[in-house]
Amino acid sequence: MGAFSMQTVLFIIYTMLGFVAALAAIMVVTGIIRFLVRKALGRIEPDPNATTYPTEVPRVA
Fold first, then answer.
1. Distance (Å, rounded) from C-alpha 49 to C-alpha 47?
2. Using one digit for the tens of pLDDT, what is the confidence trace for 12-34?
3. What is the DSSP code string of 38-58?
């Protein structure tokens, strides 16, 4: 016999799923707000793949 009843286990699972869903919703809303603010201000984010350092690095002997 388990230490927790099935009702308790389901409550814990549903609570954790609820928190994960709430976190995902917050992330989506934050992303949408960031997009709208950047669009309203006319700002362009820098390309994260662009190099910010020289590609020809001198060798140190």
1. 5
2. 999 999 999 999 999 999 999 99
3. HHHHT--PPPTTS-SS-SSPP
Tokens 């308790």 found at: 8
Q: In terms of residue numbers, what domain contains 4?
A: 1-41
* Structural domain contains residue 60: no
The number of domains in the chain is 1
Q: Is 20 within the bounds of a domain? A: yes
List of residues 6+ apart from 44 with CB closer than 8 A: 38
Note whether residue 61 is domain-resident: no
Rounded to a whole number of angstroms, the CA Rg of the chain reads 24
Q: What is the pTM of this model?
A: 0.60
Task: Give the N- to C-terminal CA distance of the chain in Å, as an integer.
Answer: 70
